[in-house]
Design brief:
- InterPro entries: ESCRT-I_UEV_domain, ESCRT_assembly_dom, SB_dom, UBQ-conjugating_enzyme/RWD, UEV_N.
- GO terms for molecular function: ubiquitin binding.
- This is Protein ELC-like.
- Its main location: other.
- Belongs to the ubiquitin-conjugating enzyme family. UEV subfamily.
- The chain is α+β, with helices and mostly antiparallel strands.
- It has two domains: 119 residues, Ubiquitin Conjugating Enzyme (Roll); 106 residues.
- The strands form two sheets. It has a five-stranded antiparallel beta sheet, with no helix packed on it. It has a two-stranded antiparallel sheet with strand order 5-7.
- A hairpin with a 6-residue loop joins strand 1 and strand 2.
- Helix 4 packs parallel to helix 6.
- It is rod-shaped and about 140 Å long.
């Protein structure tokens, strides 16, 4: 009664209603008529409000139809299905008795259909067709450009992945070389410690040979007393010469005059030779 009082253009009736979900048909009370909704055809909108069997606990079902013969339901309407005319609204979606009623639903439909008219004339359809004709080629070009950009981006990603793999390989090679250099450095430090120790041993031996009274001045030498002493001095001199050679190679490496591989190869060879000379010195000194 409140709906008919607020919207006298609607009239009640009882007609068969077919549920779209299961196809069953029941006789339902409904209200048909016009809602004062402005359209491009200057006519109202014809609506049918079906009251369900479990009303007022369930929301009514509303269908909208164009009143004028030349009018049509607009496509892509946010609240009206163009093919069936079935209408949805926030009011119906949030239906809650007793806060919701038929008059409130009709007023809500009038408001949203006024903001978004559901019907339009044939000229609107023609205008939409012209817009599609204009925008269609533009959309096609945009899709082609997007496809090219996507393909280019994929190529760039593949190239960057390959470069990343190469850089990772180089990083592993640099890490291995650094570890090898670190081992060589530790080996050289150990050799230096042995050199200091052996130098001390030779200095003590020289002190005993010279009688321990006087130290040799710069440029002053001594004469070997026997064959063993001569060999001992020769081995010690060779060992010291190898140390100087290694120092010179280190300076050349720092200046970039020799490569790392050449430096390591020469240092290994000199270290082996120095080991034999040092061993001869230690063996002769122990005798």
């Amino acid at each position: 009664l409140g709906l008919l009082r607020d919207f006298p253009s609607l009239s009640p009736s009882v007609d068969p209603f077919t549920h779209h979900r299961d196809g069953t048909t029941v006789n339902l009370l409904n209200a048909q008529g016009f809602l004062p909704v402005p359209t491009s055809t200057d006519s109202d909108v014809l609506v049918t409000v079906w009251v369900p069997q479990n009303y007022p606990f369930a929301a009514p079902t509303v269908y909208v139809f164009p009143a004028a013969p030349s009018a049509r339901l607009l496509p892509d309407h946010p609240f009206v299905d163009r093919s069936t005319g079935l209408t949805t609204s926030p009011y119906a979606d949030t239906w809650r008795y007793p806060l919701s009623n038929l008059s409130g639903l009709a007023r809500d439909l009038t408001a949203i259909l006024t903001l978004c008219p559901p019907c339009g004339g044939a000229n609107i359809e023609a205008e939409r067709d012209r817009e599609e004709e204009v925008t269609g080629p533009l959309v096609t070009r945009l899709c082609r450009d997007a496809a090219r950009l996507r393909a280019k981006a994929e190529e760039d990603i593949e190239r960057l992945w390959a470069e990343q793999a190469v850089l990772r390989g180089r990083a592993r090679a640099v890490d291995a070389a650094m570890e090898e250099l670190e081992e060589e450095r530790e080996g050289l430090e150990r050799a230096l410690a042995r050199k200091v120790r052996d130098t001390r041993v030779i200095s003590e031996w020289l002190g005993s040979v010279c009688g321990g009274a006087n130290e040799l001045s710069d440029g002053e030498g001594f004469e070997e007393g026997d064959e063993m002493s001569r060999r001992l001095v020769a081995n010690a001199a060779a060992e010291l010469a190898i140390d100087e050679t290694v120092d010179a190679l280190t300076v050349a490496l720092e200046k970039g005059l020799v490569g790392v591989k050449v430096y390591l190869k020469q240092v290994r060879a000199l270290a082996r030779e120095q080991f034999f000379h040092r061993r001869m010195v230690i063996q002769k000194w122990s005798i």
